[in-house]
Amino acid sequence: MSPVFPMLTVLTMFYYICLRRRARTATRGEMMNSHRTIESNSRTSPLHAEVVQYAKEVVDFSSHYGSENSMSYTMWNLAGVPNVFPSSGDFTQTAVFRTYGTWWDQCPSASLPFKRTPPNFQSQDYVELTFEQQVYPTAVHVLETYHPGAVIRILACSANPYSPIPPAEVRWEILWSERPTKVNASQARQFKPCIKQINFPTNLIRLEVNSSLLDYYTELDAVVLHGTKDKPVLSLKTSLIDMNDLEDDDYEEKDGCGMDSLNKKFSSTALREGPNNGYFDKLPYELIQLILNHLTLPDLCRLAQTCKLLNQHCCDPLQYIHLNLQPYWAKLNDTSLEFLQSRCTLVQWLNLSWTGNRGFISVAGFSRFLKVCGSELVRLELSCSHFLNETCLEIISEMCPNLQDLNLSSCDKLPPQAFNHIAKLCGLRRLVLYRTKIEIEDYDVIASMIGAKCKKLRTLDLWRCKNITENGIAELASGCPLLEELDLGWCPTLQSSTGCFARLARQLPNLQKLFLTANRSVCDTDIEELACNCTRLRQLDILGTRMVSPASLRKLLESCKDLCLLDVSFCSQIDNRAVLELNVSFPNVFIKKSFTQ
């Protein structure tokens, strides 16, 4: 026999095995077709009437551009029928998140990313919406009116927010997800992703967004939920599949990466017994630790079940110096924290943002965890952690003596008196209180205290401080000469005629970021002072000013060689022609000119 024939036989068998893997659910006749296999596909029976509904209300969100006592640019605009769509442009009646692009990540104050963050978790913000009726979703449409493309994940929840009976179990299911992609057009669109079918009805939908690839703020107008009251009937549909795709991940039972599976892995004591631990026995302990440092948390838990040696390495507290639990917000609970407790005695960075809501984490469970794992904490991220109360802040102040970085943004359920405990944290270097209920009657007094006590302050965000005046700004400028970032956006009581902005420019030569958003009094004199004194400036936002000319901007751009962001949206003297001319002269600067149609 020719040697060719045994090789053909082997190839034939290999092809047959691959075909069997791809066609496990197919009939015998269909498996013989080398180009086709059966793929499960959901199809709604025509007997089921479809329910179409707009969001009833917005129940939770991580950030928005607007203020808490207004409707302009707030997430609450997502409730109800469209206000703007199908029009395109910048409209105050839409929902806008707080940031866009990579500008915030390029600031000196930007926090370093956590290690071991799963590559498929790229969400930056979220909004949760409720609908009148629970349905089995067949479609979710998002009406985007300006710079679309931020939505990267859509989830559905089994809990009914309007039910008087607390659910025995709360489940979140991903309907659709995708990595961030660049959408070149800024015009309005109706985003209609193809969602998967779930086995429970829902009236709670969550959108997660990533705005890092956007050239400006994304604006959302409404969300439409399509669905049926009865569970749809599944049907089988034949579809073409590329037989060159020989990965069998899609056809084998996947090991879940959620916290349910993590909990099982943490508590597993049955390890495989073998004659030895392979070549790992011959490697130095430190080298194995370095290798395992590249694994995500679920992978670390899986590896811990392979042998006693790797279990010892995977449970070593040195593997948990940085612990990011935000990607697992949908499953993380008291049990999860309890299983992690013995491994986190040396944790220094801990991210619990978005976790614990709807009863998943209790005050008692959080307190038990911090009492064991809080002594070495340097950084604690608790953004949108609505389980927090005054007791939690008291525990943080007592159990975390080394804490330097505390993020409580959008913890809007904390009572004002709870923040008194923060004063006990003497080593704090970064504190985020965005969208909290901390009560400040006189911002000038606060600014004066900051100027007197925080001589080495580098970053200060006073976004939408409603009553700070030129007196407070003068105290800041004289007391904090090292300031590199200052956000005075939407501070209506500041007026250029008092000389406050010119004084800032003269006294803060290290400024790299200055936001004077929506201050219509900013004038050429202020811009020229910045050009003369703040040559390290990288980001400047003067959106909405009526008194700045193209000539003063040209002086600024010529002087500030590192300037990379200049927002002149709605600046009445800066027309599109002026922006075009500046772009030609300074091609390395992103000059933003927004519009409304």
UniProtKB/TrEMBL annotation:
UniProt keyword list: Leucine-rich repeat, Ubl conjugation pathway
Keyword Lipid biosynthesis: no
InterPro entries: F-box-like_dom_sf, F-box_dom, FBXL15_LRR, Leu-rich_rpt_Cys-con_subtyp, LRR_dom_sf
Keyword 4Fe-4S: no
Segments forming domain F-box: 277-332
Top-level division of the source organism's lineage: Eukaryota
CDD domains membership: F-box_FBXL4
Any Pfam family: F-box-like
PANTHER family, A to Z: F-BOX_LRR-REPEAT PROTEIN 4, PARTNER OF PAIRED, ISOFORM B-RELATED
Protein name as catalogued: F-box domain-containing protein
Gene: FBXL4
